Amino acid sequence: MDPAPGSKIPVPPNRSLKILTANQDINKRKRAAPASPSGPDAKKVDNKGSSSPPVFKAQEETWEQISEEKGWSLEDCLNFKLLFKKGKGAMTDKTKMVALSQHIKCLRAAGWHLFSLADQREADRASLLGQLQTEQSEHAASRQQHAAGVQELQIQIGNLKDELCVLRMKAASYIETNGTTGLEAYSGGCQNKVAEGLKESAGLREVGAALQKQVEQGQADLKAAADREHWQAQDLARSKDQVVSLQQQATHLTEQHQRAQTYNAQLQEYNGQLQGEVQASAQAMSRLQAEKNQWCEDMAALRGKVLALESQVQSAQGSAAVAEEARQNASSDAGRLRSELTSLGSERDSLVQDLATCQKEVQQYKEHTGKSLEALEQETSRKAQLQYQNKAQEEINAGLQERLAVAEAGVRQAQSLAEGRAGEAGLLAQQAAELRSQLAEATGKWQEGEVLRRRLHNTIMELKGNIRVFCRVRPLLDSDIGAGPQSLQYPNSGDLMGRALEMSVASTVPGQPPQKHDFAFDRVFAPAVGQAEVFEDISQLVQSALDGYRVCIFAYGQTGSGKTHTMLGSPGDRGMIPRAMDQLFASANAMKEQGWSFEMQASMLEIYNEEYKDLLGKGPPAGKKHQVAHDEDGGTSITFAEALDVSGPEAVATLLRQAMRQRAVGATAMNERSSRSHMVFALRLRGTNANTGIQAHGVLNLIDLAGSERLGKSLACGDRLKETQAINKSLSALGDVIMALANKESHVPYRNSKLTYLLQPCLGGDSKTLMFVNIAPSADAAAESLCSLRFAAKVNACNIGTARSNVK
Ligand SMILES: Nc1ncnc2c1ncn2[C@@H]1O[C@H](COP(=O)(O)OP(=O)(O)OP(=O)(O)O)[C@@H](O)[C@H]1O
User: Fold this and answer.
1) SS3 689
2) Structural domain count, the chain
């Protein structure tokens, strides 16, 4: 595609352009000009450019080729101006560069052509001048010759006239002397001589006339040659002017080309820097991840230590309590024993007093009254009894004293034990407090790291562009064995490892080698790659939904290529949707520590034959239809459709099972249980951080698209034909929307299908979109695989803007 005439070459914005002065001199260029019109610096251009706009030629063309190909005259070429559209639909810098280089090549070819014309004219002029000079000298020689001949002739005529006079005189004297006799004969002879002389004179005149004619012819030739020379000089001057203006134009274009190359180099450098930043960010992220893991391990170890110490503290506190209880028991025993001892002491004192009184009384009795021996004996036995009682009492007292001493020793022991335990408990409590503060510090660091990691991830995703394409090739199934495998190669080293796919397709022309098609995507998963590894690559994207991003992941591919397997999987080999739910709920739980709480609502819609169908509810009342509406914040509401609160992955799994039962499943010639509808699983996340007041509203759309097979191949008819047409319409509308976004067109045709209208907020530039292109590896699916890969390559080449998180 040539750029429109009259275009201006745009200067890239915000770029300082160096004006190059080298190699701009026309004379230098002239000196460097080769015999061949392709020029000395004509470079071979790789013919790998896209089919539109301009296609590179493998070799520079001559002006004749260009003129024949484009139907251009030199003036057409000189007057041609490049026009590039601005704004929406503008060409990329690369495309402009290609157009510019191509036009410069045309101008260069025209310049070389004009140079060669000028050289040719110069050579013609020189040869004409040479010819003219030869002719002039020939003419001058012949003029001289002619003049000499004329002179000789005139001398001869004069001689003849003299002779005639002499003869006339002789004749007169003869007549005078001899009369006229014999004169006639002599006169006849003389006349004959005169006639001969006249004849000779006429001949000489003819020669003179011929010579005169030759002279005139020579003069006319000379004039014509002079005219021709003048005309050629004018022509040459005009050509030189043209050459100069062409050279100026070529110089100007070369300058612009060089500026564009400089700009391109700057862009490449910038791109390199960005890639460096991406790598540095990725490294920082992996470092952070490693630190985070280390922190997690440290935290787990600390938690273990804290738990062990806490249990030690608890057991120490338990034994301290037991010791305290024993101490209290012992001290209450001691108190009781002391009071018993005191009461026994007072009893003994009273007995001692009684004894003393008795002894006194006996003494008094003996001394003063002299009472009977019997009374004395009674008194004595009473005294002995009292003494015995006193002794028993003293023994009891001693026993009590001993018990008291034992109890006091027990109390002292319990007290020292309690003091020891209390010290230990204090130490342990101190250790526990230290560990708690370490834990809090580590948790803080981990949280900071987590925030940084997520910010880095989002930056990386933004740098990578917000639409990404992963290609997944499923393994050969038993049912594919008959058809055999396609020829697919995956580079296993270098830059493209894990990112590229080479497909060889047998040529339709017998004897021709197979055609090779190379594709590169963000990731390519070979058949052996399992669900866990695939999920690892999308887990960060899924995580973004918690950070308030709108995320859309969809699986595209022909029937039976593995879309449902990738998105849903099976109970033993779970796909992206259940794994995403596990991760989201686990992360939401972990984020509680940072003050986050999340509410999540799930909805599941099917788009079948260009009609919405709610897979979780009862559907709209009779005569009504589901209507989709989008608000300014990018929120989507669907009338009569259920959006259910979900609190964990199990709840989502139950809803998924319920939805799957309702999903329309039909039979086609290609896949017995082929899904004939698009299934859209949407999870709305509303997060609030109680500490910071931040709110994050994210959406995760996970979509299992219907098969993209072509009508002819699916052998569809009747209802199946209608289904296939509806599917193809919506898939082609999806492609149109992506292309319109990529081309920054003013109108994006979201309303052309129910699928694109539903996904409008998730496709419209500020969301994160990932497309899985699923490939069936059997040979009979090769044509469909090629179509899918080409579509995916177009999507991969798109940059639909920068994702924004919906955080308040
Ligand atoms: N990566 C894989 N590993 C193992 N088996 C797979 C893989 N991908 C797909 N399959 C198997 O291939 C068959 C077709 O896959 P699936 O139903 O997912 O295709 P589909 O593209 O969703 O088809 P449709 O468009 O009809 O829904 C299934 O039996 C599935 O189990």
Assistant:
1) strand
2) 3
Q: What is the mean pLDDT of each run of 10 residues along the chain (808 residues)?
A: 36 31 35 37 35 43 85 82 74 79 83 84 84 83 80 80 77 70 63 71 74 75 77 76 74 74 74 75 76 77 78 75 77 79 79 76 67 69 83 85 84 82 84 85 78 68 72 91 82 82 85 88 94 94 90 91 93 94 93 91 90 88 89 80 91 89 54 66 93 90 83 58 82 87 86 91 79 92 90 80 65
For residue 803, is it within any domain? no
| Cα Rg, the chain, nearest whole Å | 59
Tokens of 10: 């745009």
Quick check: CB of 671 below 6 Å from ligand 1? yes
Known binder of ligand: residue 266?
Answer: no
Amino acid at residue number 734: L
For residue 508, what is the domain's CATH number? 3.40.850.10
Whether the CB of 666 sits within 6 Å of ligand 1: no
Give helix 183-364 / helix 373-464 axis angle, nearest 10°. 170
The answer to whether the beta carbons of residues 534 and 548 sit under 8 Å apart is no
Instruction: Give the C-alpha distances (Å, rounded to integers) separating 644 from 544, 599, 600, 697.
Output: 21, 11, 8, 16
Beta carbons within 8 Å of 450's beta carbon, 6+ residues apart: 292, 594
Q: Which residue has the tokens 């020029």?
A: 39
CA distance 73 to 301: 84
Q: Report the half-sphere exposure of 476 (CA within 13 A, side-chain side).
A: 14
Whether 190 maps to a domain, the answer reads no
- Residue 419 neighbours by CB distance under 10 Å: 12
For ligand 1, pick from 564, 577, 713, 724 the residue to mutate: most ligand atoms within 8 Å of CB. 564
Has 802 been labeled as part of a binding site? no
One-letter amino acid for residue 63 of the chain: W
**Which pTM was predicted?**
0.50
Q: Is 634 in the same domain as 527?
A: yes
Domain boundary at 73, 97, 124, which?
124
Rounded to whole angstroms, the Cα distance separating 19 from 255 reads 7
